[in-house]
Specification:
The chain is mainly beta. Helices cover about 10% and strands about 35% of the residues. It contains 3 helices and 13 strands; from the N terminus they run H-E-E-E-E-E-E-E-E-E-E-E-E-E-H-H. About 20% of the residues are buried.
Length: about 160
């Protein structure tokens, strides 16, 4: 089976430009909601129990460092290996390799923990509770470098 181009997926899945970089389409929002009273304080409103999007990066694009208040589940379907850089609360860096080459350390799935800063780029989610832009925070380059100076080069390359 031939690998399809990015334009093929963007057209066939009706993907739109995402503020962090890349393209996306929300394809599922659960009709079941969690009330604000049942969620941690950092949520601004009630939330769908889960949401799912398709997300795509083209060559030479990146997803800028950002964070959300929910765990984010990433699934790999097609294309080149994706590296997701996750800065954990203690400042340590985890590099998730999303892809189909299991023998090379890639995985078709990973979890980004709630409130961790993360960004992604090509190597050469399902979100629960559901994603809402009200809790989406795009990183400010200088603030992130100030907090995690050991990752300055990576942060500089993956912020806007």
């Amino acid at each position: 089976m031939n690998q399809h181009s990015a334009d093929y997926w963007i057209n066939h899945l009706a993907l739109e430009i995402h503020p962090e970089g890349g393209a996306y389409a929300r394809v599922y929002t659960s009709p079941i909601t969690i009330s604000k009273a049942s969620l941690p304080e950092n949520f601004h409103d009630s939330r769908s129990i889960c949401t799912h999007i398709y997300y795509l990066l083209r060559q030479n694009e990146f997803s800028a460092f950002h964070k959300i208040q929910s765990d984010e589940l990433w699934h790999f379907y097609d294309g080149d290996t994706l590296i997701i850089y996750e800065i954990n609360a203690d400042g340590s860096l985890t590099e998730h390799l999303l892809g189909k080459n299991i023998e090379a350390g890639e995985s078709p799935f990973c979890v980004i923990k709630a409130s961790n800063w993360f960004a992604s780029s090509l190597k050469k989610g399902t979100v629960s509770p559901g994603f809402d832009f009200a809790e989406f925070e795009l990183a400010k380059r200088n603030e992130l470098i100030s907090k995690y100076p050991t990752h300055e080069e990576l942060i500089t390359g993956l912020t806007k």
